[in-house]
Amino acid sequence: MKPTAEQRQALEPLMDAALRRTLDLFSRLSGEAWQTLSLSLEGLSGPLLGAAPGSQPLHVIQLSWPGGTGMLILNEPDGLTLSQAYLVKTIKTRVDWLDRRALPAAALAEIANIVVHAAPNVWADACGIGLLLSVPTLWRGSAQELEPQLRERLRQAGGFSLALTMELSCERLPARCSVKVLMTDPFVEKLLTAHPV
Amino acid sequence: MKILIVDDIEETRFCLKKQLESAGHSVVGEAADLDATLRVYRETKPDFVLLDMTLEKQDGLTILEALRQLDPSAKVVVLSANEMASIQRAALQLGATGYLVKPVNEQKMLSLLSSK
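Above: the input entities. Below: the C-alpha cells describing the complete assembly.
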C-alpha cells in the first residue's frame, strides 16, 4: 500500500507525535539529546533493514500488537553504546560486569520495549483504544541474514502494508538507529479515525 | 520496605533491585510468572509488589488480578512502557496502588513506596 496524498496528510500529525515521543524517550533513556535524520511513511516494497547504517552485525528488537509491529534496528557498536548509557543512568552503584554478561542485551531489550511503545501509546490514546504489546524478540546478524527471516515472520503474521521509519542519531554518545513501525490496512483505517493529537 | 519484584527478565530485576537497595529498601523476593509470584508473595508477605506489565507467560493485569484475589490488601505498583490511558485505567480498576510509566523516574518510584 502506497499512502495516498490525503492519507499521508491525515496521518502526518500522528506520525509527528510518535516521532516527538520517541525522541523524548531516547533522550531520557540515554541522558543525551537525540535528533531526527529522517522520517518516512512508505509502502513495504523496499528492504526492511536497508537504511540500517554500516556493515556491522545488526540488533533488531521487535514487539508486536494487533495490527502492528515495531522494531528497533541498530548496529552492534551503537547497541553497546546505547545500552551502556542506559545502564550508567539506571544503576548508580558499581557492577561486576564479568558476572553480568547478559546485562547489555537485556538493557537493549528494555530500551526497545520502551521506545517501540512510543508510537502505539500515542496512537491508541488518539483512537480511544488499548493495546497490549508482546515481549521483545531479539535478532542478531547481518542485514543479509536477517532480512529474509524478518520478511518471513512478517509474512506469517500477515497483512502489513505501511511502514513508518524514523532514522535517529545522537552526536554526543555517539550512536544512531532506526525505529520502524509496520501497520496493517485495518490498523491504518483505525488511525484515520483518530482524534487530533 | 519489603519488596517483591515481578519481571521475567533476570537482568531487569537485577537493575531494579540495585536501585531499591541503594535507597534502603529490602528486596525479599523475585518472580518471573504468575505461579512464582503467588508462591513468593505467600512466603515473603512483602509491603509492595513491583510488577512489570509485559511478561512472556501472562500479562501484568492477569497477575495483578490474581494477587488481589489472594490478598485484597496487596499493594501492587505496575511498571510499564505502556502509557495508554485505557490500560492504566484497567490496572487501577483492578486495584493497583500506582502505575509508573517507563523509563521510571526513580524519585517518583521511591516516593510512592515511602508514601503508602
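Note for the figure: The mean pLDDT of chain A is 91.
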